Structure formats: structure tokens, C-alpha cells
Amino acid sequence: MLLDLRSLLAPTDALEFWTMALALGTIVLTWVAYRGLRSLGLAKTDIQTRAQREARTCAILRCEEMAQVILPQNGTLLDRLAVAKIPPFTIKSADAVQLDPDSAAHLAAARAWVQTLPQDLHVACVDLLNRLEAWAMYFTKQVADHDIAFGPCGRVLCLFVVQYYAILLDRRAGKTSGKFPNLVELFTSWRGALQQETTMNDLAQKAALLQEQRRAGKPLKPPLGTNLDG
Question: What confidence tens digit (pLDDT) does each residue in 69-107 have?
Fold first, then answer.
């Protein structure tokens, strides 16, 4: 081993020289690779951190847009609908909305409702839907953070889709308009999240009620099928 080490450090012939060169090259390459991989790992972490920060910032900006631009625009439209004495469409809850696939049963009534709109008011409603489509794209294309915007905007977005459901159905069934795919996708996702949130809240309220009944000493109803005496 000592001879081999001595020959490596002080080669006496061509074979020992190239052996020494190969060993040194391997050591250098290993060190360079280690530094490169370590730098790559740090760069990846930095990129992820910056991406998360930008996604959160984008979500906050979208919330501000909702509060400062979209809600006032919708308020103006609601005032105009009221002045024109146009009643709301028959579908009044997000649970009843059927999109992607669209409801054929709702389409005839939707088109009849759209026909009652003055042309300028119809155009203004479509303009709001176009803005909502662009707004939703930030989330469906993973540019903005869902979790930040869902709380303040989830129910509002679903309410917009309910309010303009007839126009959405009419436009999606035609051939002269886009299908508003991002708005529909975000609505479907957030409606499901709201339904799950409601279910969890109901379960939590029922659990709290049962705990309160136990603390008060009130007898609980037996499980179904276990009280056979009555």
C-alpha cells in the first residue's frame, strides 16, 4: 500500500503518471459534482420559495380585484336588472347548477330568460362573465394560491355563477362564444370544497350537541335497530 501511494504521489513511469492523473481527475470531478448538486438543491429550494411567495401575492391581488372591481361591477348590474324589473333565473342555489355536462333540462328556460334582457344589459353581463373567466384562470392555471382566495372569494364566485347561470348555459350552447372553461372548472372545484366544508361543520355541530346533552345528563337516543322493546 505504501509503495502504491508513493507511486501515486511521485510516478516513475507513464503508467503511474496516467494512474495519478485519473485519480486526481476523479477526485476533482466528484467535488465539482457535489458542489453542483448542492447548489442545484439550494436553487430548487429558492425557486420553490419564490414561486410560493408569488402565488400568494397573486392570490391577494385577485382578492383585491374581486373587492374593488368585480363586486362593484356586479352591484351595478344587479341595480340595472332591478330597474328593468327582470326577476332572477329559476335556479337559486349552487347545488342546482349543472355544468360540464350542462343541463339540457335547464337550457330552454335559460334561453327564454336571456331573451328578456335588453341588449345593452346582456352585453354588460357577458362582459362580467369574461372578467370572471380571466380571474378564474389565475387559479386553474396554478398561478395563484387557491387556499388564500378560497376563504374570502369561494362563496362569492359560486353566487356569481348562480346569478348568471342562464347566460352561461346560453353562451356555452352557442357557437359564437367561448365556453368559459376556467370559470366552470373553478366553480366546480370550489363548490365541492364548500359542500365538504358544510358537511364537516354539520358534523361538528352535531358532535357538540351530543357532548352538551351528555354534560346535561340528557339520555341519548339508542342506535337504530338496538331499541327493539318499543
Answer: 999 999 999 999 999 999 999 988 899 999 999 999 999
- The amino acid present at 164, given as its one-letter code, is Y
Query: Taking each helix axis from N to C terminus, what angle separates 119-140 and 165-173, rounded to the nearest 10 degrees?
Result: 90
Verify cis geometry, omega within 30 degrees of 0, for the bond prior to 101. yes
Contact 81, 164 (CB under 8 A): no
Which amino acid is located at 134 in the chain? Answer: A
Give the residue with greater pLDDT, 151 vs 51. Answer: 151
Q: Which residues contact 225 (CB under 8 A, 6 or more apart)?
A: none
Q: Which of 77, 85, 106, 214 is nearest to 166 (CA)?
A: 106
Radius of gyration of the chain (CA): 32
Residue at 27: amino acid letter: I
The Cα–Cα gap between 4 and 12 comes to 11
The count of other CB atoms within 10 Å of the CB of residue 107 is 16
Q: Tell me which amino acid residue 34 is.
A: Y
Which cell numbers in the block locate residue 45? 429550494
| Nearest CA-CA partner of 153 in 49, 51, 68 | 68
Domain boundaries, the chain: 57-215
**For the segment 132-182, what is each residue's pLDDT rounded down to a tens digit?**
999 999 999 988 998 899 999 999 999 999 999 999 999 999 887 789 999
8 with 20: CB under 8 angstroms?
yes
The answer to whether 61 and 139 have CB atoms below 8 angstroms apart is: no
